[in-house]
């Protein structure tokens, strides 16, 4: 099932994306928030073209990032591969949805795209064994772990470089029925394909990442874990359009704009 968060000009709502009897893509409106309570169909349907998709989740707690989880990406930045997952945090204020702008901060002169598969946590999880990880995952979405690369180098830690407002586009929806073992993860900037990897290349797979993160801190419903980015990261500039595609999930596109 594909769960979208959307608006038609009113308050954000949730819905299940699918086809109606005429083969048109519609959103079947849900009552309630599927991450926090039982929901039911309202009977209302909204044509996808009449809705504005929002970030499918705004984490109440945190976004957990994973660095250097593809060997080819670590190599292109001349970094060694870690012996264990390399975790960092992005604030929930960095999250934006489809078609919302990535805003280039004045403090940076080298901002990069990073296409990723994202995991959405569905229940409170602490010290979860790897074999039980599927029980705590609500679903998956596409992400762009936008990074101020120059600040990442100069700060010698990643909080500011990864945490600016708009530096975590998510979308277009959450796919709840998905095997994450071998999915294509791609990124285009304008008409130029920059990244083309597969989750089968992850140094640490989804189960390992969720289990490892849950050993460090409690994961809450709506928390997001970014699984790492393949090789091909590069600079984005004002006027660019960045498109992240994750196989069997969908397409996440965002324009790039300068700071006001």
TrEMBL record:
Its Gene Ontology biological processes?
A: carboxylic acid metabolic process
Molecular function (GO) terms for this protein are: acetylpyruvate hydrolase activity; isomerase activity; metal ion binding
Ranges of residues in domain Rv2993c-like N-terminal: 1-56
Q: Which residues form the Fumarylacetoacetase-like C-terminal domain?
A: 62-257
Keywords, comma-separated and alphabetical: Metal-binding
Q: Which InterPro entries match?
A: Fumarylacetoacetase-like_C, Fumarylacetoacetase_C_sf, Rv2993c-like_N
Q: Which domain of life is it from?
A: Bacteria
This protein is called: 2-keto-4-pentenoate hydratase/2-oxohepta-3-ene-1,7-dioic acid hydratase in catechol pathway
The species this protein was found in: Haloactinopolyspora alba
